[in-house]
Amino acid sequence: MLRDRKTLLILFGLPVIQILLFGFALTNEIKNSKIVICDYSKDDYSRMIIDKFSANGNFVIKESLLNHLQIESSFKKGDVKLAVVFPANFGNDLLHLNQAHVQIIADASDPNTANILTAYATNIIMDYQKTLYENLNLPYHIGTESRMLYNPGLKGAINFVPGVMVLILMLISVMMTSVSIVREKEYGTMEILLVSPVNPFLLIVSKVIPYLFLSLINFTVIVLLSVTLLGVPVNGSLLLLFGVSVLFIITALSLGLLISNIVETQQEAILISLIGLMVPVTIFTGFIFPIENMPDALQYFSNILPSKWYYIFIKSIMIKGLDISSVWREILILTGMTCLFLFISFKKFKNRLL
Amino acid sequence: MAIISVENISKKYTDIQALDNVSFQVNEGELYGMIGADGAGKTSLFRILTTLMLADKGKAKVNGWDVVKDYKKIRNSIGYMPGRFSLYQDLTVEENLHFFATLFNISVKKNYDLIQDIYIHIEPFKTRLAGKLSGGMKQKLALCCALIHRPSVLFLDEPTTGVDVVSRKEFWEMLCKLKKQGITILVSTPYMDEATLCDRITLIQSGKILSIDTPQGIIKHYPDSMYGLKSSNMNMLIYDMQKAENIKSCFAFGEYLHLSFQNDNEAARDELRNYLTEQGHQNIELKQIMPNIEDCFIKLMEK
Predict the structure, then answer these.
(1) B146 or A287: whose pLDDT is higher?
(2) Number of domains forming the structure of chain B
(3) Among A195, A198, A300, B194, which has the minimal tally of Cβ within 10 Å of its Cβ?
């Protein structure tokens, strides 16, 4: 075992990394979540509640909006998760009618985060209401109305379906390609393929193509099941959804190609694709632990995973129903990654055995 | 004309000198044997000649093309059968053959005449998976696949290792037939008895060439007279021979011991017979024999 350095590294390295990750980086607690405020009332009371929000560690007020119609466009940009709206005459109502309402709107395309944030916000407002009670000894009541945008039923499926898509496509594409190509090395068939007129790199690429179709069939089945059985909507363009999924599958296939160039045995290929890839993909894609809560270093790290961008894309298209103008950044990043992976594997591909 | 020419090729792995200044030539239409034990450097040499590996030093040409510069041309025109069974085990016999034909962009039919004699042996099993074939069958299939594009040079790296005696004999008969078709064949083997079937052989040990000649030439150059010795108790004979005097070398080969004397004359032979009779041996038979390739190899290794 001491001579098998890789196994040793996994055996002792993995627990350390995992305990650090789960201990520090991965919490369901949400800090510094960006919110927007839309204050139609602009009186002392609303301002005091806004101050409470900005003093709370869970929230960072990104901007104040003049119009509630701007809320959805802030959500579409992706980083704002919650909006608080004070109606006109908020202070007046509170003073004279002893009751007023605040509206809390959450981006529920991630239902867990939406739930937690709404609860935080409601707490802040209830706290404020209590302080009013104590000081003035009058039965003030501030009602909160919460609205879950994109996912009013807070369906869990809406969160995990995109996650499962990412996982399955990544698993099949990366592992199957790397294993099937490394098998050629292990069985010695690569030796004969090299001593033939066919360009071996092209041959390898043609070996990968069936997996593209296989993954696409899998993708179609997942989409069909989600729509029919789980009631997950496809709000955006189906064509765009398929197009970019093909792009993501190609990204994953080229990553598999890259891995197959580096390793020599099927065992190594499986180890790298499973542990080296599946763990980061589950943790850093965002469908289990919100990336926004992680330390900066890990947030930067999550950017190098193609799955994160595909996950953002899937949610934008399927759940939020956005169009191509909102996801061009993800498409561009995935294209860039694919080109990079293909370029490196082409450069690293050995035309000889040694 | 030299189809394969190797000049001062050296190859070193981290701490092993696999090939040390190896030079030789193979002429057109020759059946040329590389004879050497495991680890002698045969596979390294084959990989350099089939453009799979780069040599550290030296030049090599196949069909007049340089193995480094013109590797693509070489890959087009040679057939290569690696030492390890390297076909697709999950494809059938037939599918493997068609796959390799497609790889070279030809049809199996076009060159079927070349492989017919060999393929006939495995045709009854053509729907069987290649991985399920016996050792001899596997090698025959691999040979078919290496031949399907009618290569001008055939590289066979230990094709008979791990194959039963009958299949080995068949295999060599096939090679002789292919030679008649004008294909130049470079074949390596650790079996000395196969050496006599080659036109010329190179004896190689620890990356160095010991000798290059025809098998007969190598045997002719054996410096001493060789005797075969037999008695009714072979086990005791080997033991007693270790203590006998005036013996230069003595090795067991099949039913005879092969031995040579320090001072070879009639008196020495009589002395040995007397010594063995004293030790209680019966039916002693001592006769002059032709040395075989293995005797020569051992002799050359001692130098």
Answers:
(1) B146
(2) 2
(3) A300
Mean pLDDT of A236-261: 92
Residue B94 within any structural domain of the chain: yes
Query: Cβ of B86 under 8 Å from any chain A Cβ?
Result: yes
Partner-chain contact A189 B78, CB within 8 Å: no
Q: Residues A86-106: pLDDT tens digits? A: 998 888 888 888 888 899 999
Other beta carbons within 10 angstroms of residue A57's beta carbon come to 11
- Closest by Cβ to B50, choosing from A189, A195, A198: A195
Q: Is the pTM of this model over 0.90?
A: no
What is the domain extent for residue B196? 2-216
Per the prediction, chain A carries an average pLDDT of 86
Of B197, B216, B235, the position where a domain reaches its end is B216
Q: Which residues of A touch B84 (CB under 8 A)?
A: 188
The residue among B119, B111, B196 whose CA lies nearest residue B152 is B111
* No. of helices (H) and no. of strands (E), chain B: 10, 14
Nearest CA of chain A to the CA of B73: how many Å? 8
Q: Residue B102: closest CA among chain A residues belongs to which residue? A: A198
**ipTM attached to this prediction:** 0.82
Q: Please give the pLDDT value at position A1.
A: 63
Distance of CA B49 to the CA centre of its chain: 16
- Band the pLDDT of A255: cuts 50, 70, 90: very high
Question: Tokens for A110?
Answer: 């991630």
Question: Per-residue pLDDT tens for B165-220?
Answer: 888 898 999 999 999 988 999 999 888 888 889 999 998 988 888 888 888 888 88
Are B298 and B185 part of one and the same domain?
Answer: no
Residues of B in contact with A185 (CB under 8 A): none
Model confidence band, residue A28 (pLDDT cutoffs 50, 70, 90): low
Hey, are the CB atoms on A194 and B75 less than 8 Å from each other? yes
Residue B221 lies in a domain: no
DSSP per-residue letters across B202-251: EEEETTEEEEEE-HHHHHHT--S-EEEEE-S-HHHHHHHHTT-SSEEEEE
Residue that is written with structure tokens 């627990």 in the block: A15
How far away is chain A from the Cα of B89, in angstroms, using its nearest Cα?
Answer: 9
In this structure, the answer to whether residues B211 and B255 fall within a common structural domain is no
Let me know whether B250 and B132 are in one domain.
Answer: no
Torsion of CA B239, B244, B248, B249, to 10 degrees: -10
- Name the pLDDT band for B300 (thresholds 50, 70, 90): confident
Residue for token pair 């990544």:
A170
Torsion over CA of B107, B110, B113 and B117, rounded to 10 degrees? 0
Residues A35-66: pLDDT tens digits? 899 998 888 888 988 998 888 888 888 888 88
The answer to whether B77 faces chain A, any CB pair under 8 Å, is no
For domain A33-149, give the CATH number: 3.40.1710.10
Same domain flag for B77 and B154: yes
Report chain A residues touching chain B, CB-CB < 8 A: 187-189, 191-198, 351-354
Q: Which residues of A touch B88 (CB under 8 A)?
A: 187, 189
* Domain final residue, candidates B183, B216, B249: B216
